[in-house]
Amino acid sequence: MIPAQEALQRLRDGNARYVSDARDGADATGARRRIELAAQQFPFAIILGCSDSRVPAEIVFGQGLGDLFVIRVAGNIVAPSQIGSVEFAAERYGTRLVVVLGHSSCGAIIATLEELGRNSREQSPNLRSIVNRVRPSVQPLLSTSLANDPDVLLKHAVRANIRMSADHLRHGSELLEQLIQNTGLLIVGAEYNLETGVVEFFDGLDD
Ligand SMILES: [Zn+2]
User: Fold this and answer.
1) What does the pLDDT look like over 104-128, one tens digit per residue?
2) Is this prediction's pTM over 0.85?
3) How many angstroms separate the CA atoms of 94 and 6, rounded?
4) How far is the CA of 53 from the centre of ligand 1 (A)?
5) What's the 181 CA to ligand 1 centre distance in angstroms?
6) What sections of the chain are H helices per DSSP?
7) I need a surface site. Which of 94, 168, 174, 189 has the fewest CB within 10 A?
8) How far away, in angstroms, is 101 Cα from ligand 1 center?
């Protein structure tokens, strides 16, 4: 079992390798590693990330097969099946770090802001279910001065949504609450920058 802080350092190091283009994935994704892992896995971190094609968790964190248990959904929202997936991995594999990974210019956040501004087209009920989960974190920002600048508003909305998802995971599951209290499970929020490739951990850390 890898403690949360050690797992976090691995992700920071992996992201630094990715940003500096120093990655070497041959060992991490090769046939030998695949065969080693066929019978069992011990992922050291759980990532709840956005489905955006530009933010594949394994790549931006410089990791290979068997390293990360990844849940991806547009807008990195938290619905019961996402909580269940986190519970499953944390309990079964002893994984002690959960990262909610949002990103700059997230389309799900943009769609939510458009809907709140009533510029949106009719959404399907399924897409609406995503927007509805983003909205509570974003809506309060509209009554602040942030609403005057669309770019600033979007930046704050992305982070507000990440914070809300991380909080939802911390408090929306009895099992996860117990793991936090008793085993050191850590749930943090992070934002990936589409231009620089840097992942900034900004929520849920003491330091
Ligand atoms: Zn996104």
Assistant:
1) 999 999 999 998 887 666 778 898 8
2) yes
3) 14
4) 9
5) 31
6) 4-19, 26-29, 31-37, 57-60, 80-93, 107-116, 125-138, 150-171, 174-183
7) 174
8) 9
